[in-house]
Each structure stands twice: as structure tokens, then as C-alpha cells.
Amino acid sequence: MTSGLFHRAEAVGAQLPPLLVAAERVAATVSQGVHGRRRVGPGETFWQYRRYQPGDSTQRIDWRLSARSRHVFLRQTEWEAAQSVWLWRDASSSMDYRSRTSWPTKGDRADLLLLALASLLARGGEHIALLGDDRGPAPGRTALKRMAASLERGSVSDESLPRPAPLPRFATLVIIGDLLAPLEDLAATVAAFARQGVSGHILQVLDPAEETLPFAGRVRFLGTEGEGEALIGRVENVRPAYVAAMAAHRAGVARIARAAGWSFAQHHTARPAEAALLALYLALSIPR
Amino acid sequence: MIGLGPLSFAVPLALAGLLALPALWWLLRAVPPRPRQVRFPPLRVLLGLSSPDHSVERTPPWLLALRLVAVLCLVLGAAHPLWNAGGPLPGTGPIVLVVDDGWAAGADWPSRQRMMAELTGRAEREGRRVVLVSTAPAPGRSDPPPPRLMDASEARDRITQLAPKPWETRRDAAVEALRGFPGLAAAPPAAIYWLSDGLGQAEGRSVGALAQTLRPLGSIEVRVPEPSASATIVRPPEVAGDTLHVIVQQASPVAAEPIIHAIGEDGRIVGHALARPITGERTAQAALTLPAELRNRLARIELASSDRTAGSVVLLDHRWQRRPVGIAAPRAVGGEVPLLSEIHYLERALEGEREVRRGEVADLLGRELAALVLTDESPVDGDVRQRIERWVTEGGILVRFAGPRLAAAGGRDDALLPVPLRPGDRVLGGALAWREPAKFAPFPTWSPFVGLELPADVEVYRQVLAEPGMNGQAQTWAELDDGTPLVTARGQGDGWLVLFHVSAGPDGSSLPLSGLFMQMLERIVGLGRGVSEVRTDAPPLAPIRVLDGFGNLGPAPSTARPIPAEVFGQNVAGPLHPPGLYGSEGHVRALNLSETLPHPEPIGPMPGGISVAGYGPTPEIDFRPWLLGLALALVLIDLAASLALRGLLPRGMIARPRRIAGAMVAAALTLATVPAWAQQVVADGSAMPQTLVTSLAYLRTGNAELDAVSRVGLRGLSLVVNRRTAVELADPVGVDPATDELAFFPLVYWPAGPTAPMPSEAAMRNLRAYMAGGGTVVIDTGAAGGGAGQGLDLRQLAQALDLPPLVPVYEDHVLGRAYYLLARFPGRFADGTVWVERTGEHVHDGVSRIIAGSNDWASAWALDDELRPLFPVIPGGERQRELAYRFGINLVMYVLTGSYKSDQVHLPAIMERLRR
């Protein structure tokens, strides 16, 4: 299972180049990563040789070059820095919904998108972490695999919105979910993160039926998270009102995101995952 | 039980359930179907909408009606409605079923059994017991079984086991036992049903009189079968010449002319005849004319009907077949010269399957004899002469040959000669005679020799002449071309005196050297009656196989006892000795029930107070299973409808109801049309199936019998071809040449027998087109027993069909080599010539467009459903049938493969070359 989701996510992500998150504020919040910063600093890649100066650590003398010349040289590496990205997806039971068996559930699609994004980030050398998981950001495929296993286990929070948590400044947060929670809750959550200086991206994943209400006749609707139930005599009569309400809700979400300087995108499970991934990719890689 | 006209309810209490219907109506209207349930995450958005529509949903009216009908069916079904249940049985005591289960009951036994089962069922519903009385004695006993009171369920078992017995009923004894039955005397009035066989009996034993005596026991109803369903008696046949006269008797006037079948030892039908009504119309007579060789194979004569009884089957034993012939021969004094002795030629001509004895006349007459042959040399003395005369009067056949000795003694008044003879003989041909040896003239029409082929080389040189002015009793059976009689005969009593005016040796004529001699003797001997000897001192005859009540032969039960030889044939068929075959292997005697049965009489009117009814078609109809089944079906429909209303059926089934309904209709139509395909109609456009298979075809002549023979013949051939060769033929198809397309068939068999009509001009045109297109027509002018020269005129056909000149099948023709190497092409007859088109012209791959013959091939190929041959072949033998099949296979191969095998013609030459 794990490997199944993992491979699918890898396949989706493979069509895009490795994602390098635009890190405009690279100072202390950015841990070392593979981003070459065009200056000397801690890193892996060779940058330049420099003559030994008193005060330099003898351990940094490049003995091979020094043995070939009369001077003693130090080997300097390029300063590499990595962005840390926190990912979160809605794992509540409202995500376990699909209106047709030929489509994936919203939760499956959210998992796939999250992991595909994580795969792109890992290939870009960024540090990734699952928000709500107790592990900190880590680079590479190991982190990716750990994240996939964690998703499969469902060991993350079962809430409709991420619980506000202290994040490093200038971290990036990606929220994937149906965002059907009341708008005031969402606004509070976003505000809490934005206060910490976190930049964010919101992706709303919905089933097409949730947009269009394609039912007819006498239907009893049951909530998925204990909201109760609604018996509607003729569903076709309430359809226009419902569509309008959904549009208003979506506009509200977009407004909240804009207010915090975050990006907002919407995705339907009937559409391919690549489109949503590309939107996220663009949103993450464009510096602001 | 309550009733409404013919409809009644066995459990009327259950009808109270109908009261529940209005309550159900109200309940169903009040409780709407449950709404469809959907999990829906954005429920909060829905809840926020203002005033959702909460109108009350009601059960749709059609669903309401469906459920009400289902419950109605359930309630009615529980009430057990019956149609024609006949109301309650009269009386309150037991139900008495008096059943005539003698031989006559076999004619319509199923209806009797149905009636018994119906009455027993009614008794069971009323909780009454049943007394079952059968009027025929049980096997091995002389009295009917005693009556017994039993439950309806036990009675039902007994009824299924009850079968008609192959002997007469003893109604008086059965009724006597019933009257003395204590179980009835003490009980309240019974309902008595007498299921009679419709036959009356002598005074005092008739149904009416006996039923009258049962009146004190309860009400009586007598069931009488329809006159057409009453039993028929087939009497043992009388022999007259080569004809068997069979008397058929019925209790009522013979309406439809019954058909009599003559069955051979192997179960095949060897002949059939219609029985035509004679005196009084209750008696009919059938004349079965059979060739001698077929008559010798007869095993039984029976009514061709499904209503056979033990009285409508006559078993035949050797009395009907054996015709021992005695040749009177003086005790040989010295060495006998075989080729000059008359006796030698007679023995050679008569031997075969027939028993031929030789000896002094007195010794020969000491045993049963069918025919006695006296040669010229046999002396006939006064004492013996009288015995012979007596024997002839009783039915013997005396055959005499006139030679020099008789000629010398001629003129004397010899009572054992059919005609007085002139003294001296007449010599024809020879050195001192003027005249050429004489030839045979065609046989006169009254002669038993009619139909025999005259060989060209039979000549008569020396002849004894009859006195002119022959007396009127004598007949000339054969004469010479100059009109002088050669064979004369005179009937005397039941027998015949036959005189050959030549000797039995080769000195008077070449007749004894020819096959004609044999055939003539055969016919003469066949005139006589058969003989069967039973010596009174023989051991008792044990039963071998006996008839059951339906006229079928089966193994003898242990209750059948041997019959002492001295009483055999003296009215002994009965429960102790059921009719059948008795004796030992090689010496079998038939005991026939119909030999001793009296003429059947109608049952006559019933005395007052006794109701009469038939076994008519008033069976009750039980609606319960139908109603309950309908209720179940409606409930299932309701279930499906409810699921669909609540959206619980898969999406596709709701979205595409039309497609599903269409598929179901298509499936139903497919099922309905399968039988239509099976009929293989060729007319109009429905010939599609024929294009997929290869099958032989025959012309439908419109004569049903002829067409049936063609069909079973070609079916038999197809079967054999499929078995032996790689060809796979489907069932043959009957075609009407005037309307049907023939192009699908490689071969069309045309039974142009004597009964076949000449086809119309349109048919001829179609056939011409078919042949021009490469088809082959097989014309059989001998079809359906016609034999050579009896059918349509081939020459006329050839002109109508625009045929090229035909030639007899020559040696090396491919027809004789296509699969088997054949020199002759026999069918049912062996000696007809087969004509083909002269091939060698390279058209149609050298296949003759026409093959004509007169051997009645289809009859030889014909097999019945059990794959037994239907018609005997003539002269006979399995070899001839096998050759007929081989010809058929060659024929099919020839039309299918063409000249492919004509290379085989050159095979000997090729082999010869290789050997060098």
C-alpha cells in the first residue's frame, strides 16, 4: 500500500523538474540544503581554494593541493541552504467521499497530491515535514518514504483544519483539504500561522457532486462528521441555492487566503491530479 | 368447501384474510417508502439553505396496486381454489372405487387412472376413506382381490400400481365380495364409483344388474368410456392363399377404420392393412397380403394404435410359418441316379428354410404336412388314395407331376387329378417332330405365379395333355405359348390339387433346371395352411414370455403356470395362464386371448337410480400453486421496484431500463424462434440454415407416405455417411421444386414411384436449372415398393427434364468406385438397372447430372428412431442392405467429390506398371 501510493505520487511528480522553493528569506530560518547560494559557506560542493591564513582551522587544509605547491591551501565549499516546507492534508472522514466509483475519493486525491509535492520537494533538496507529525523537517527520499508511511497509517490529526503549531519563521505551509469547515474557523487558523510569518498555499479538493448536487427526488442527506442530517423532499428545487452557497463559501476561502498573502487553488477529483500539482508547483516556485 | 359455480374453495376460512386488504391499503398509503439515503460531506452548506421542501411523499399508486394484488393472490391461494372440483361427494361413508381392470381396460387406462386419482383426492379432502375394488382376478388367482378399507394416501399408492390384466374381469365375484364386506355394512352410506371398461357381459353379470345389487350400500355412479375409446379385439387370422384375413371386432360400430400391423420377429413392421367394416359394422376385416418369405418372419399381428390391449394383439407361432413338404418317394431299390431322378430336382428346389420330408405316402401323412408332392413314379394305391383325398379336403396341397407313367395311365378317372388326362404324351421338338420345343406363355392373371419372371431358355419338349372340354372347376395356372395348359389346379375342400403337365425331371422340359421351378413350387406351397404339431403326450408347456394388459410381451411372472399339452388351446387364457408364448425353445406355441373372447357387446343402458358419466375431460384445476407462484413473483417485482425507488439498485440498471427490457425481449424472441429454425423451412427467404450445413434433399411429392419414406431413408443414409466417412451431413430436407431454391443441396432424391404425381412445369423448370447449375438428381422409379417398371416413365421424365441420352452404369464408372468398390447398386430391390448420363464430357467435373434407377433405395436406407431398418429388403439378407448403404455412400461421395476418384479407374494399370 505504502509503496503503491508512493510510486503513484512519484509517477505524478516525475513529469516536473525538481522543485526549488523560492526562498527569499534565506537567513537563519533556512537550514542547509542543496540550494547553491553562490558564496562560500557550509555545503558539500567545491567552491574555491584559498590560501591558508592564520586562524583557519588546520582541519580544513586541503592536503593534496598543499602538497603539490609551496603554499598551504584551504578547500572552501559553496554555501548551500534548504527551505523547509510543512505539508498538511485533511484526513477527516469528510474526505472519504466520492460520488462515482470511477473517481478517487477526495482523501485519496489529497494524499496523492501531497506526496507528489513532497517528492518534488525532496528531489529539490528541500526539507519536508508533515504538519502535525512530531518529526521535524528532513531532506531526501528517506523523509519522503517516512512521510508516505505516515500517510498510509493515518497517524496524523483527524481534524478538518490544521491545529496551529509553532513553525519556524519563513517556513512554507501547504494545506490540502475540502475546507468545508466554517469560514471563521479557517480564518482563525490561517491568521494564527500568518502571524508567525509563515507563507502558505491552500488547495481545495472537492468532488464534482459537492459542487453541483446532482440528486433528485426525496433524499435524506447524512453528514460525515456528526453534523446531523437533512431530509429534502425535492432536491432539484434546492439545487440553485446550494450551488450559490458553495460558490460563496469558496469565495470566502479565497478571501481569507488573500488576506494572509497566501495562494488559493481549487481542484476537482474528476480532473487529473497533474493539473493541481502544476498549480501548486507554480505557486511554490514563484518568488514573492 | 364452498363453491361459486364451477369454482370452489377447499379452505374457505382463509378467505377471511381478504378483510385485511383495506387495512393494508390504508397502511401502505400512510407509510411512504423510505427516502434514499446519501452521505454528503457539505451537509453544513445544505443545512444553511433556507426552507428545504418537506412535502409528504406517498406510495405511488401502481406500487400500491402491485402489493394489493400480491396479497390478494396470497390469500386466494391459501384458500385453495379449485375449478370443476365437483362439489362434495355423496354420502358420508367411504368412497368405493370399483375398477374394471380386465383386458379391455388397457385401451384407455390413463384416463381411468386419472379418474381414480381425482376421486381419491376428493376423498382425502373430505377426510373419507377409500375402498378400492378391482374386478379382474389377481395374477395366479381365480377371484378378484378382496376389498379393503384404506386411507386415501395408501389408496393413491395402490392406484399407481394398478395395471390392466390381460384376462377377463369377474365382476360378479368382485361385487359379491363387496356386498359381503363388513367394512361397508357397518359404515354410513358410501359413494360408489364404478369405472367400467364399457363392455357388456352376459345376463346377470352386466354392470347394470350388478350395480343394482349394490344400491343398499350407497349412491352409485357408473363411468363409461367413449365408444371410440373402448377396446378392440383382433382375432387370429385366417389364411387364404398368400393373404391373411384378420377379423377386428368392437363393441360399438367401427367408426375409423382400424389399421392392422403385421410385426416381424425382429419387431419391424412387415405389412399393414386397413380393416374395413363388414357385417353389422361392429366387425371389420383386414386383408394382409404378404410375400411368402415375409410371412415366414411374422411374429405378431396387432392393432396399430396406442390403445392396444391384450385382446388386440395376436401372437403367431410356427403354425403360421412352418410348411413341411413331403415328397413321396418309393423306397430306393437300387442305386439312384441323382441327376436323372425327379426326386433329386424336387428336393433341390424345395430345400432351404423349409422342412422337406421324404418317404412313403402313408408315413408322410402320419404327421402334419402342408404339401405333398407326388412324382410320376410314385404309385398311389387305393387305401393311400383315400387318405390323400381326405387330407386335401382338410387343407392339404397335393402337387403332382405327369410323366410317362401317368400319361400311360391317363384317361382313367383319377380323383387326385385336377383335369382328366389324355392317354399318351405329346412330344415337341426332337428329331422326329415337326415342331420346335414350346415356350411359356405369360401367366394368366388368376394364377398364383403372376409376377414371376419368365426366363427365355425354359423349353418344354414333352407334355401330357388334358382332355379337351375341361370341367369348370379346374384352373389353368400356366400354359404354353400354343395355349396348352402346363399347370392346372383344382380346389377341393380347403386344399388344392395341382398338376404339372411335365415331369419333375429334366427329360420332359428344362423347367426343373431353371430358377422358375423353385419359385413356382414356393408359391404353391405358400398357398397351404401352416401346421403345428402338439402331441398330447408332450410335457406341459411352460410360459416363456407373456403379454401384459397393454399387449406388450414381457417376461413371464412366477404366477403364470405351465399348461398341460392336451388342454392347450381349449379356452385356457386367464389369470393362471396369461396370454403369451408357451413351450420351449424351438417348440413355441402362442396362447392368444382373442381366440376365445366373446364378441364384445356395448354396456347397455343402466337401470334407474344409477347415474352414468364418461371419463370426459372434466379434470379439476387446482389454482393454488399458480396463485402462490404469482404472489411470489409479484413480491419479487415489488422488491425490485422498492429498491429502485430508493436508489439502491446499481445506477446502470436504472439508467438503461430500455436497454435491459430490450435485451429480455430479444432473449424471449430468440427462445421462441428456435423451434422455427429447427423446422428448416426452405421456401421464401428462410433458407439461411441450409447455407451453413450440407444436407441431402428429397422432392416432396405431396404423398405423405412417400415423403415420409424419403425422409427417413435419407436420414438413415446421412447417419451412415456421417459414421463411416468424413462427410458431415445434416438432417435431410424436403423441398418443393416448384417453389424452393435447390442450389444449396448437392443431391436431390426424387421418389418417382407409382404413387408419385408428375411434377408441374414450374418444378421441371426449377429442376432443369438446378441440374444446369451442377446439381445431381437421383430419380428412383421404384420408390415406395413399386419395383421395376412401376413408377413414372423415365423416358417421359427425360424429355420433360431435357436430359441427354442415358446409359446404364458401365464398368469402371466412378459411381462404383467413389468410396467402395461396387459392381451392383441394390436398394430394396436388387436387380434394377441404374442409368447415368454419359460422362467424359468435361462438364460439371464429370458428374452425371442424373442418376436413375428403380431399386427403391430410400426404403432400403430407412431407419426408424431406434436405428432399426424399417423395410425388409427383397430378396433379402443383411448383405443386400449393406450394399444399399454402400451405394448410398458412393452416391454422396460421387456428387460431393466429382471425378476425384476416377483416377482409381486407372489404378490396376498403374499397379501393373509399378510391378514391372
Can you describe this structure?
The complex is a heterodimer of chains A (288) and B (916). Chain A folds into two domains: 230 residues, Rossmann fold (3-Layer(aba) Sandwich), CATH 3.40.50; 49 residues, no CATH class. Chain A contains eight helices and ten strands. Chain A has a five-stranded parallel sheet with strand order 5-4-6-7-10, with helices on both faces. Chain A is an alpha/beta fold. The radius of gyration of chain A is 23 Å and the shape is elongated. Chain A starts with a helix and ends with a helix. In chain A, strand 4, helix 3 and strand 5 form a beta-alpha-beta unit. Chain B is an alpha/beta fold and 916 residues long. Chain B has five domains: 154 residues, von Willebrand factor, type A domain (Rossmann fold); 87 residues, Sandwich (Immunoglobulin-like); 197 residues, Rossmann fold (3-Layer(aba) Sandwich), CATH 3.40.50.880; 47 residues, no CATH class; 220 residues, Rossmann fold. Chain B has 24 helices and 41 strands. In chain B, the strands form eight sheets. In chain B, strands 11, 12, 13, 14, 15, 16, 17 and 18 form an eight-stranded antiparallel sheet that branches. The longest helix of chain B has 22 residues. Chain B is flat, with a radius of gyration of 39 Å. Classes of the chains: A alpha/beta (288), B alpha/beta (916). At the A-B interface, strand 8, strand 9 and helix 7 of A face strand 3 and helix 2 of B.
